[in-house]
Amino acid sequence: MSRTALRPRVLIVGAGLAGTATAIRLLRFARSPLEIVLLERHSAYRSAGVAYHRDGNPWDHVFNIQAGRMSVFREDVLDFVRWANHEADRRDWPEPWAGLEFVEQGPAPRRIFQDYLDDRLAEARREACPGVVLVEADGEAVDLKVVPGGAEVTVDRLSAPDLDTAAVGGPAVLPAAHVVLATGLELREPAFAAEVADHPAFVRNPYSAAGVRTLQALAPEATVAIVGSVLSAYDAAGLLLRGGHTGRIHLISRSGTIFRTYPGGHEHGVVALPCPKSLLEPYRGREEFLDRVRTEWTAACAAVGREHPDVDPVVVAERVAKAWEPHLPEVIERIPTAELRGLLDEYGTAIAAVRVGAVEYTMAVIERAMRPADGPVRLLVGGVAAITPTASGRLVVHVAGPDGKRAVEADLVVSNFGREPDYHRVVQPLWRNLLRHGIAVPHGRTGRGLEVDAHGTLLGADGDPAGPVSAVGVLREGDEIVRNGRTGAFAFNLAAIKNHSIAVAAHVVERLEMGDDDSARKLARIHSRLGNSEEVDGPGFEEAVVLEVRRLATRGRAEREMLDSLLEAGIRSLGEGPAGSPNDAHRHDRLLRAEVNRAAVRRLTDVSVTPRQLRRQLGIAKADHLED
Asked: Domain FAD-dependent urate hydroxylase HpyO/Asp monooxygenase CreE-like FAD/NAD(P)-binding spans what residues (predicted)?
């Protein structure tokens, strides 16, 4: 008998950060047999993706945010720092990292995140319930069709020694009860570089092994043009400067945005601010709306400075942006679609700079190089119209700015990781086929990501779930903007992925435990009868939610099983449910269990508090010298 006949299969397409985080949660949440297939088309990206893989991230590339915010578990804020200090294998690390004691507010190199995720995935695999297995497979998903009972995914170049299929080697069709799409960022092909795409002096992806080698081999006196002035541009410029580069480095930016440096000792925080009520007035045009935004923003920043004197002025804007998030969905509702898209395009970089900064390790070398009038780094404001080659082998970057047109001749041009948010334009076969089948629909209001429901399930053109297919990460950018007010990169960054991984894994497990559609419909009817009954309002329900929160947050199997047993007993004690057969009573208990799980997930993904506050509220903070 095949493995798929013994247990349902969940196929995760993409094994970078989002896919790995979701696999970890599935391994921890599943209570009955389950096969989790983690599929990755680039083996070097496994447990890393483009942002963290070792080949594209030399040791000088550090996280933009502090090490203490890099835990993959929202409920265990300092897990990454503890791992780096006590579990990481440092035998091949160079100085100063090999001897460094990592601290919450300090830097950490991005390349070690791959080892961290590998270790946490291995731990989740070891501590999974009996019958819950992980299969790591290589190959590219190129098509997906919804079929009765699940989906069928076509995979090219499939390689998976532990996968029970006769078609290994690909193309192969893998059946799955549920599919999670975690494909990460899609590259946008810049039209301005069409003439030089294959030129040796043009680096399309500085986070590739070839891109890093080109930067490291460049002559110190060479002239460099970097398209962009935000965080990825700083990585390329910083790599050159730390290597002793003395030649001119041009940062070319359409908006002229420069990110701020986090102050020493900075911690993520949340403040409460009133709703910016004038933004809820009818939309009367872009300039009038922006005037209202500026007025409300100025008042909100002043309020934070006045009422929270402990907040460093450098991060006041971040606090205001975060405090406004709960109100932004109602504001966005009032903006016409075309205007909303235009505002996001025009101000996306500025919004990102307001919402997040960078650690001093990244910014100090850039700021020093920009500060003197004759410093090696110059900011050039304008959009790149074209890049053309010269007879000498150099490249000319043609820039159209507010002061007219300029041409910059350079020995090397670096085009930063421009992503393609509009899935109408993504050229990968999987996405072309998903759109053709109607399983995926580009997000209508924002043109960013895909249409999904509150669980992250893909929606078809009719607004109904398109099948047992969920999305995590950047695929949900547009929905995060309009549903949760998560603007800038915070619509798809690590914080969003943590919450997606929890909610999607819990939803998938719940759906599989419900069984067939008929059972789900019956449970829905029971749910409607429960309403606001005492069962979901009383202290017994609250105790059950606390137990479920602890179970979801627990890494060890023995403790999870103990908590699960206590929870089952608590569910049975909540009430007998509607009169009827034993099967009705069983379904009633299953529904209550699902309600308890949903309440626990809402608490674990509550963004109105910081992760540290969350741990205290949930009663799961540990005695640890790194906790305050």
From this structure: 12-184
Could you tell me the two tokens for 495? 């914080």
- Cis upstream peptide for 109 (omega within 30°): no
Q: What does pLDDT average to over the chain?
A: 89
Place of tokens 């699902």: 594
At residue 628, the pLDDT reads 37
Please tell me the distance from the alpha carbon of residue 560 to that of residue 267, in angstroms, as a whole number.
31
Q: In the chain, helix, strand, coil percent, each to 5?
A: 45, 15, 40
| 379, 251 Cβ separation under 8 angstroms | yes
Give the neighbor-by-neighbor strand order of the sheet with 150-159.
Answer: 172-176, 150-159, 132-147, 34-40, 9-13, 178-181, 465-471, 457-459
H or E element, residue 477: helix 477-484
Question: Which residue in this structure is represented by tokens 């819990």?
Answer: 506
Which pTM does this prediction carry?
A: 0.93
* Residues with Cβ within 8 Å of residue 82, at least 6 apart in sequence: 624, 626
- Residues contacting 294, CB < 8 A, separation 6+: none
| Displacement of CA 564 from its chain's centroid (Å) | 29
- The DSSP bridge partners found for residue 378 are 250
d(C-alpha 31, C-alpha 238), whole Å: 47
Dist CA 185 CA 187 (whole Å): 7
Encoded tokens for 52: 């963290």
Structure tokens at 387: 């890049």
Instruction: Give me the residues of the chain with pLDDT under 70, please.
Output: 1-5, 164-170, 417, 488-491, 516-537, 575-585, 621-628
pLDDT at 534: 46
CA dist., res. 260 & res. 125, Å (int)? 40
Q: 230 with 327: CB under 8 angstroms? A: no
Under 8 Å between Cβ of 10 and 26? yes
What's the maximum distance between 2 C-alpha atoms anywhere in the chain?
Answer: 86
CB 417 within 8 A of CB 232: yes
Please name the residue ranges forming H helices in 272-359. 286-307, 316-324, 328-333, 337-355
What local confidence, expressed as pLDDT, does residue 621 receive? Answer: 63
Shortest CA distance to 264 belongs to which of 361, 370, 355? Answer: 361
Tell me the C-alpha distance between 471 and 474, whole Å. 9
Q: Which residues contact 23 (CB under 8 A, 6 or more apart)?
A: 12, 15, 36, 38, 121, 124, 134
d(CA 301, CA 305): 6
b/e for 570-588, b at 16 or more Cβ within 10 A? Answer: bbeebbebeeeeeeebebb
Q: Tell me the pLDDT tens digit for each residue of 412-455.
A: 999 986 789 999 999 999 999 999 999 999 999 999 999 999 99
- DSSP helix/strand/coil, 426: coil
Query: What is the secondary structure of 219-274 as a DSSP string?
Result: -TT--EEEE--SHHHHHHHHHHHHTT--S-EEEEESS---PPBPPTT---------
Helices (H), ranges, 377-476: 429-437
Q: To 5 degrees, how large is the angle CA 474–CA 476–CA 481? A: 105
